[in-house]
Amino acid sequence: MDEEDYGRAGGDVDSDKYDVLTKVTDTSSAQARKGKNIQGIPWERLKLTREKYRLTRLEQYKNYENILASGEAVDNECKQVEKGGNYYEFFHNTRLVKPTILHFQLRNLVWATSKHDVYLMSNYSVMHWSSLSCNLSEIINFAGHVAPTEKHPGSLLEGFTQTQISTLAVRDNFMVAGGFQGELTFKHLDRKGVAFCTRTTYDENAITNAIEIYDSLRGGINFMASNNDCSLREYDTERFQLLNHFRFPWPVNHTSISPDQRLITVVGDHLDGLLVDSQNGKTVATVAGHRDYSFASAWHPDGRIFATGNQDKTCRVWDIRNLSMPVATLKGNLGAVRSIRFSTDWQFMIVAEPADFVHVYNTRSGFQERQDIDFFGEISGVSVSPDGESLYIGIWDRTYASFCSITKDTVMGTWILTCEYVLL
To answer: Cα–Cα distances in Å, from 143 out to 91, 124, 140, 163, 285?
Structure first.
């Protein structure tokens, strides 16, 4: 909720009291159980209650659509889901981390590499946050001049200046950032400087929409970049050579590779999604049903189920054994599905809307049960740690920004929600 919304909500708190309320640094789980708002919004001092403001947001939030009224057209197709699942519990919040967003449709700017380590975009910087030590550090700043310190064929030795980062991917020791002008920058997290940078295209419509880092069928680690010039490009992380360049009839907004590395989901500025052979780029299947353009996809760890997220406000779940219709069509509360992740324990599918809601679906119930994580603010990304123990959510807002981590209590066998919020 930004300052204008705060005013419209009936905020008549004087400036001194407002500063005190918004600069509170921490909220504990004990305080939250006693009724304290985890974002620090002083609802008790406002003329409008949280419940009424939520209704206002649901009524007034404008979902971006490329196809007019696409969200209204799918109502009859959506699966009835039992809401109110109680998988998570709030644990703590702090105001140290500042996730931000540069492109309103691209929300893959948060990546967890362990239970306690997460990387995110904050303005021009890639930041590392440790939820264990509560330490925030800058990994790379793209505001100035960034040039490679290693020599590889095809790397732009002159580098880039003031790169606007549209998308990010981090895995293990590897980080790849994509830019608005088709830039790709690769960095080893355990080394100083940048290893490789290139411009994928000089096309006028050049934005890098998504990046994925994954194990190669041939061994080693590769990454692929989805681009608005209707292309998907695959690189290795040793020599940084372009291995494959697959072209499509429309801009590619997101891709994800199957657990066996043989199939790639491709979604973009088209109603249909594609399943593509990872070795030759040939389309092996088409999935139809969405009413608008898609910006998210993900594979279940079993390799049979995958999901696609669309601006028609739905997440559709597909089974490769029968692609004639989705296993489930799941609709959110507010807007487009901008990010999807599966937990590595196979139990949950996490679906992020553009703002205010992250939904956790119970996959073992056939996606019939879900928990809504409810807050106020735009979502910069969601990420599940490799061990499946933590889920991170980045939230941006002009007045209240937030960074949330959900961690599993392995002793008690339950889940605890840790939310860390910051004031911009």
So the answer is: 35, 5, 9, 6, 42
